[in-house]
Amino acid sequence: MIRFAPRPRSVADVRALIQGDPRVRMVAFIVATGLLSAVALLFSPPAVVSYGRAGVVADHEVRAPNSTVFASESLTQAEREKAATAVQRVFAADPAVSVSASTRLAAGLGSIARVRQDATLPREQRLATLARLGDVAFTPALAADALDMTAAEFDQLSKEIDASLKTLYGQGIRPEQLATAAADTAKAVPQVWTDRQKRVGAELLKQNLQPNLIFDALATAAAQQAARNNVSPVQVRVTSGEVVVREGQVVTEGDLEKLRALGLVNPGIDWKSAIGLLSWALLIAGVVALFVERYAQEAWTDDRKLMVVALSLVVITAAGRALIPGHTVAVYFVPFAAVAMMLTVLVGGRTALATQIGGALHVGIMSGQVELVAYVLVPALLGMAAVRRATTAREFVAAALYVALGDLGVIGTFLLVGRSADTLGALQLAAAALISGVASGVLAFGAIVMLGHLFRITTVFELRELADPNHPLLRQLLLRTPGTYHHSLLVANLAERAAEVIGADPLVARVGAYYHDIGKMRNPLAFIENQTGSNPHDDLDPAVSASIVSAHVRDGLALADRYRLPPQIREIIPGHHGTSLIRYFHSLAQQRGMAIDEAAFRHPGPKPRSKEAGIVMLADGTEAAVRSLEEKTAERIGEMVERIVSEKVADGQLDDCDLTLRDVQRVKDAFRELLAGVYHERIPYPEDRIARVPPAATPPPLASGR
After folding, report:
1. Would you list the DSSP string of 235-270?
2. 215 secondary structure, DSSP code
3. Which of 406, 439, 549, 563 is the right S-S partner for 379, CB 3.0 to 4.6 Å?
4. Domain 462-530+541-679 annotated CATH 1.10.260
5. 3-class secondary-structure state, position 214
6. What 8-state DSSP symbol labels residue 8?
7. CATH 1.10.3210-classified regions of the chain
8. What CA–CA distances, in Å, run from 26 to 21, 267, 306, 484?
9. Any idea which of 202-206, 400-404, 649-653 has the lowest mean pLDDT?
């Protein structure tokens, strides 16, 4: 039976699974966020000191809380090494060395004896032969001594010299002692010998000496270990109140031993606490995930926003763990509120609230102080309320001030409740509160810009850049399609005002209106607001004209992708028409009696999904229709606004967005008010001061491609 191994999942498959299955998404967020938070909680455990090694500089003074006696490993090890160093190296004798030397000596004596006994050779030749012997290296003087010795002298030397050699080897010769032994050979020969016997004998001994003591590494190591084992542990006594480490002092290994013996350094992971903290981190991550999933769907369905939420919770936890409980004042300098302010703008207020509460609870379990929980949470709520949408620098300044006041309020309240009379400590906390407030405003501003760009989350700063008339895309729209550009400006004014009255985002509505018709730049003359002469649609089939008009949606999306417009703005490009009918060409086809497929005369969609997209749709249709009116009185404008909006509602174009009937009514009122102001009746000028210009022909409803 053949079994196939399961295909490994790619990153794209895992991401699709997380996005497609709500349960998997929930579990993935809880596990990832919980584990990261647990890492921050576990791997920076609370301790009086954080010195993990010797050589660091102490940041504060530490005194012994109690007396203790302990065996110092460092001092004991130092004594053991001193005892091992005092042990001399062990050498072992090699008997083969002396045997080999005796053999070589006997061979040399035999060679000398043969030369001495060869009476057939003259003296000079025998001397030369002795100087060239292979077994013995003689100088001419020594060769003469060896040749001139009497037979009795040579026989005595031959018999007694081996005993001298054995005496030298019996004393033992180490490699480093070889030169000394060679120098002492003259003392090793018998003193009763004649001078020439001594000279020849000393040279023979010197030439046959070699080290016979070899270093024994194993025996030496055993002796050193035995010396170490004989050293007793060194006891150290610490007295209560004794200064163990002074501030600014370089911490030694002995200092660390004292701190460990006193219990002032965390000895390792407490598995019971570790399991508890891991469970706590997963619990908080689950609560945050459930809240965001139920009450902040926009953030929950966006992977990038969820990543920012998880990162923010971990940052709060890590900042608290880095300073709690060893730094009693430094933790009050941390700008915790910056996280909530940043999340309010990037992700949303509800998500920011849930995340900040989760971070405050983490700080609470680390510190065990209700005061710090309130310090993390209360000023952050004030900052969230002040920063709102962060559309101006003034809001960040106000938010920083609110956070500072909140910090001072929390500190002052708990000082009063605790009846603290430490004036210096209170001043330090007050300074920390002010610094934390200012830093919260500055960091929130920087984090919004940086994280918004990093995670591609649309911010007010990016929208303002898009609203700049000098943006390349808007410049092209002005130069290539001036009529469409003017139309977009009017639609932007209408959309912004409508968004204000119903509580939508006015800036998104305005910027979306600026870019909703950028696709018309590809074929400007197909739209009547850009035409200066004949209309090319007069000679085309209505269905073809409808396809040309609807193509500006597809072309607009292509430009949006090329210029990396944010999703909120990109959505408005197809959403401002939705799937509405292109009525002019549909009616024209009916008048000509053509076979009509209504789907061919509808825009591709999709329908608007956000309030801002729905507002731009209504503003776009209303502006074009009102502009086509011959008589722009308040009554006619009101009727046209009612008619256009009612048609969109009846056609179901607003079914997918969150606009309520109340919102729609407010939008119509805003349109009527603004359009009446734009097209109000002008003051008549005297005939002799201005030339009367004949009115232009009324443009057909084709003006914006409807």
Report:
1. EEEE-TT-EEE-TTPBPPHHHHHHHHHTT-S--S--
2. E
3. 406
4. no
5. strand
6. P
7. 462-530+541-679
8. 9, 36, 11, 46
9. 202-206
DSSP label of 602: B
d(CA 12, CA 148): 104
Residue-wise DSSP of 35-101:
HHHHHHHHSS---S----STTPBPSS-EE-SS-EEEEEHHHHHHHHHHHHHHSPPPEEE-HHHHHHH
What residues form DSSP beta bridges with 92? 214
Task: State both tokens at 71.
Answer: 């065996």
Query: What does the alpha-carbon distance between residue 420 and residue 281 come to, in Å, rounded to a whole number?
Result: 33
d(CA 322, CA 582): 63
pLDDT tens profile 664-703 = 999 999 999 999 888 765 555 554 444 444 544 444 444 4
Instruction: Collapse the DSSP code of 577 into the 3-class scheme (helix H, G, I; strand E, B; otherwise coil) and give the result.
Output: coil
**Cβ contact 651:540 at 8 Å:** no
**Closest listed residue to residue 567, CA positions, set 466, 646, 656, 692:** 466
CA atoms within 13 A on the CB side of 50: 12
Q: Tell me how crowded residue 147 is: count the other CB atoms within 10 A of its CB.
A: 19
Strand ranges (E), 349-449: none
Lowest-confidence segment of 25-34, 146-155, 339-348 by average pLDDT: 146-155
| Residues linked to residue 71 through DSSP beta bridges, in sequence order | 235
CATH of domain 11-44+274-452: 1.10.1760.20
427 residue type, one letter: L
C-alpha span between 369 and 411 (Å, rounded): 13
* Residue type (1 letter), 513: A
Distance of CA 640 to the CA centre of its chain: 56
* Alpha-carbon dihedral 484, 488, 490, 493, rounded to 10 degrees: -170
Provide CATH 1.10.1760.20 ranges for the chain. 11-44+274-452
581 SS3 class: strand
By the 8 A CB rule, do 383 and 444 touch? Answer: yes
- Crossing angle of helices 195-207 and 95-117, in 10° steps, is 130
Give CA–CA dist 390/388, Å, rounded. 6
Q: Give exposure, 598-634, as e/b (b: 16+ Cβ within 10 Å).
A: eebbbbeeebbebbbbbbbbbbbbbbbbbbbeeebee
- Given a contact cutoff of 8 angstroms between Cβ atoms, the answer to whether 517 and 489 are in contact is no
Per-residue pLDDT band for 49 (boundaries 50, 70, 90) equals low
3-state SS, one letter per residue, for 271-324: HHHHHHHHHHHHHHHHHHHHHHHHHCHHHHCCHHHHHHHHHHHHHHHHHHHHHC
